[in-house]
Design a protein that fits this description.
There is one protein chain. By secondary structure, the chain is of the alpha+beta class. 57% of the residues lie in helices and 18% in strands. The protein has 18 helices and 11 strands. It has helices at 2-43, 51-63, 68-75, 83-97, 100-118, 125-136, 148-164, 168-202, 208-217, 222-225, 235-247, 251-264, 269-281, 285-294, 296-303, 377-387, 389-414, 416-429, and strands at 311-320, 326-335, 338-347, 358-361, 366-370, 372-375, 443-452, 454-462, 467-475, 480-488, 491-498. Helix 1 (2-43) packs antiparallel against helix 17 (389-414) and helix 13 (269-281) runs antiparallel to helix 14. The protein is globular, with a radius of gyration of 28 Å.
Length: 499
């Protein structure tokens, strides 16, 4: 009897151990799920809420000259994992407002954050958490590091800040950094493509079908992406650096960058004038003849344009509107478990007509002319997204596999309820990464003209939006005046810098 009682006791103990084991598995599953959600929620505020929903109210405020609220909201994210992006936005908004000191501080903080991420030798615990939770959430958990073209504009806009302070040397440092960044961005792109290919081979992932599905969904962006060779170089940056080099009395360097600019944007007549002017001044006769045969009318104009030395150069930069925002689409991607609807970012904005800025001087009954396109930021953004396809494909296929395994674990641990909850979670957590620098302009245009020395009262008009403004500028004999015009909605913000 005693032995029977011991046997029954042991059997009850074994049963209790099984119950405890099931409870432990359930608790482990719940705890693991909570930890994933916690990690995802801490990594960035846009994991489940798209970045565009955060920024759009602030952009609307810019159109109504409401800067302080936007700067205050963005300041709250200064220490977040996405601080690079928020600081880019904040520096740009402060610059539009005309608060140069704040803009310089934010851009410098952005550069420091970019350097910190680029120079990391080992992965921190937060990065490990972000990479782990990425497999069970979405790409928004990865801390934002900035696109190549965005880093180029970061240094270029900081150069504008130095110019506003009449610090030409400081501007020279930043345009050199911007040009260097264009080379670095190309190398980084090639490295990321190689890493994606290596990861696919390592994990034995077949990407051909998935790539075909995504490229088909992205087909409508081909025309816009095709307007630029890559997303890493733009004529605006080269053109500004050329002007800075002229201010630094480095004509050879200026000529080199003007030539780079015209290689990217050969149809801009102001660029054509500049390369012919510089080739002639530097005695580059062979190149001068080549440009002259290509732009015969422009050479005749340059040859006949000299004579009056009591003038200065007006250089107008017109930054038009806001770069289009990404949207989310669901693309059926083939996986070992069948087709899954995966969320991807996409640009849906159509290509716009050219919207020039007209300049005149009513008091003198003088029409100065219109700006011409120099850089299509919209095309750079679209091209950048297209260049990221290989990496996105690999991450999404790995994520699909991880979420499938997560669903099986839920069923094994919690049963039917776990399957339902994990399926619901997988649907909710499937969000596209819509992050990008949204306060960049849609396109950039320029105009360059000679005006007599003295004060000029200019009228600016953007007929496409109805925006207009009157601005007084000062011209120095043989000097340069940079007039930067930024359009947000129907408002024009102007900054004039005279050298």
């Amino acid at each position: 009897m005693k032995d029977c009682r011991c046997l029954k006791k042991c059997m009850r103990g074994a049963g209790n151990n099984k119950v405890m084991s099931d409870r432990f598995r359930r608790l482990f599953f719940i705890g693991f799920s909570v930890s994933v959600l916690f990690t995802a929620g801490c990594s960035t505020s846009s994991v489940f809420n798209s970045y565009t929903t955060i920024m759009n109210p602030l952009i609307d405020g810019l159109k109504a000259r409401k800067f302080d609220h936007a700067l205050k909201v963005l300041d709250k994210h200064r220490k977040s994992n996405d601080k690079i992006l928020y600081l880019l936005e904040r520096g740009r908004i402060a610059q539009i407002k005309g608060d140069i000191e704040v803009s310089m501080e934010d851009y410098e903080a952005t550069m420091e954050a970019v350097r910190h991420r680029d120079e990391k030798a080992i992965i921190s615990a937060s990065d490990i958490g972000a990479q782990t939770s990425t497999f069970l959430t979405n790409d928004n958990t990865i801390p934002y590091k900035g696109e190549g073209y965005e880093k180029v504009f970061l240094h270029q806009f900081q150069a504008f800040n130095y110019l506003a302070k009449k610090d030409i040397e400081g501007a020279g440092v930043e345009v050199r950094r911007a040009n260097l960044e264009q080379h670095v961005a190309l190398e980084m792109h090639e490295k990321e493509v190689r890493k994606a290919e290596e990861k696919a081979r390592e994990k034995r992932i077949e990407t051909e079908q998935a790539s075909a599905s995504l490229n088909a969904a992205y087909h409508h962006m081909d025309d816009i992406a095709g307007k630029v060779k890559n997303s890493f170089q733009n004529a605006y940056t080269f053109y500004l650096s050329g002007i800075v080099y002229e201010l630094l009395n480095l004509p050879n360097d200026a000529y080199i960058d003007y030539k780079k600019a015209i290689e990217i944007f050969p149809d801009n007549t102001y660029l054509q004038r500049d390369v012919i002017r510089m080739a002639k001044a530097l005695g580059m006769n062979q190149e001068l003849n080549e440009y002259a045969s290509r732009y015969a009318a422009i050479r005749a104009e340059v040859e006949n344009g000299g004579g009056d030395t009591n003038t200065g150069e007006l250089i107008v930069f017109f930054e038009n509107g806001f770069v289009p925002q990404k949207r989310e689409i669901k693309v059926p991607i083939p996986t070992p478990n069948g087709f899954l609807a995966v969320a991807f970012p996409v640009y849906t904005a159509k290509w716009p007509d050219v919207e020039p800025l007209a300049l005149s001087e009513p008091e003198r009954k003088d029409v100065l002319g219109e700006t011409e396109p120099l850089c299509y930021v919209q095309a750079l953004a679209v091209k950048s997204l297209k260049e990221k396809v290989p990496g996105m494909i690999v991450r999404h296929l790995l994520r699909s596999a991880a979420k499938t395994a997560f669903q099986y674990q839920a069923k094994d641990s919690v049963g039917v309820a776990g399957t339902i909850l994990s399926s619901l979670y997988n649907v909710i957590s499937e969000k596209a990464d819509l992050r990008s620098w949204l306060t960049l302009p849609r396109d950039v245009q320029i105009m360059r003209n000679h005006l007599s020395a003295g004060i000029h009262h200019l009228h600016l008009e953007h007929k496409a939006s109805g925006a207009f403004s009157d601005v007084d500028i000062s011209m120095n004999q043989n000097g340069k005046t940079i007039l930067r015009v930024i359009r947000t909605g129907s408002v024009l913000y102007t900054t004039a810098i005279t050298f």
